[in-house]
Amino acid sequence: MAAPVAPAVSIPKKYRATIHAKNEIDPGFAELIAELEKYLERKLWVLVNHGRDERDPWDDISGAVYCGFRNQKADIVPDEKVGLLIHSPGGQARAAYEIVRLFQRRTREFVTAVPLYAKSAATLLSVGGYPIHIGSEAELGPLDVQMYDEDHDEWESALNAVQSFERLNAYALTAYDQAMQLFVARTGKKPQTLMPLALQYATSIVGPMADKIDTFEVTSKSRELKVAEDYAVRIMRLNYPENVARSIARQLVERYSTHGFVIDRAEAAPGLDGRAGPFNLGLNVAEMSSELEGIFTRLVPYLEKPGPVIGRIVEANL
Predict the structure, then answer these.
(1) What b/e string do you get for 37-58 counting C-beta neighbours within 10 Å, with b at 16 or more?
(2) 3 state DSSP class of 191
(3) Crossing angle (nearest 10°) for helices 242-254 and 215-236
(4) Which of 53, 55, 135, 236 has the fewest Cβ atoms surrounding its Cβ within 10 A?
């Protein structure tokens, strides 16, 4: 009589990220990435970080992250359908630009997916996709560059100084106009006669405030904002008319009142007429199906776990 055959033991699959992850990838996360690849019909790369550890070069969009992608550029097959899933608070605009161009130089079939959160430089990454798949509860953010303020020991938006200067200029013009109207109404004299008096009045109000402005700081921060805008234009001009790309980039840099401002999928997309408007950027945002929304919703708990995950998600023995 033959000896009984022991049942085959099923060995759980293990997964890893091809560029960087401190720990093994949760099989549930790997299965969702595979499901998303099937839905989007393309190979999917992942860039997940949280900006919580300043000592970890992988925990924001940095030069190290770009080098990780660059070292695996051979895996981006020319003209292959490719996607990038993004969950990040941002980082360096230059690194984001380099990552996007790495994909764009190899394929025009490049889309981005934002299930929940892609802010600052991560927004710059996102706009390189055509289209962008944005979850119903997801958000992009402005491209106003963050700069370190040594005097206050904190990061602040470069737009703060620039907008302060612009608002002071607007206030000076308003003060001048109001003074002219008042002087003409009260004295009945010709405007040419009253102009020096109105100018003197506006200067007396605005001058002390203007003296406190560091023009070098304003110029420096204005230049940094222009860098972010120029990167965005160059990323988008492959897929958008140049005037549209410039309009979207300018709005992302200048339009919003705070760095943390929420740009949801409705605002990111074109308006009802298919164009940008007062509350629409005009990005090519893909329609959201219930199936894709379900995948995004199930991904969220994995995206919020600590630790960066970057690269392709593959079986650990591959």
Answers:
(1) bebbebbbbbbbbbbeeeebbb
(2) helix
(3) 140
(4) 55
From residue 263, alpha-carbon distances to 92, 117, 145, 235, 314 in Å are 20, 10, 16, 19, 32
- Residues 6 or more apart whose Cβ sits within 8 Å of residue 86: 47, 48, 112, 113, 114, 118, 122, 125, 126
For the domain made up of 15-141+262-315, the CATH class stated in words is alpha beta
Half-sphere exposure of 94 (CA within 13 A, CB side): 5
Amino acid making up residue 158: A
- Domain edges within the chain: 15-141+262-315, 159-218
Q: For residue 99, which of 69, 122, 143 has the smallest C-alpha distance?
A: 69
Q: What is the pTM of this model?
A: 0.77
For residue 316, what are its two tokens? 């650990």
pLDDT tens by residue, 66-77: 999 999 999 999
**Above 80 in pLDDT, residue 78?**
yes
Q: Which amino acid belongs to residue 25?
A: I
Of 137, 120, 121, 130, residue with least CA distance to 264: 137
- Parallel/antiparallel/unpaired status of strands 20-21 and 117-118: unpaired
Give the mean model confidence (pLDDT) for residues 223-240.
85
Q: How far apart are CA 105 and CA 80, in angstroms?
A: 11
Cα 122 to Cα 65: distance, rounded to the nearest angstrom:
12
Mind listing the pLDDT tens digit for each residue in 154-196? 445 545 545 555 555 665 677 777 877 887 888 878 878 878 8
Strand 43-48 and strand 110-114: the pairing is unpaired
**For residue 140, which of 155, 128, 148 has the smallest C-alpha distance?**
128
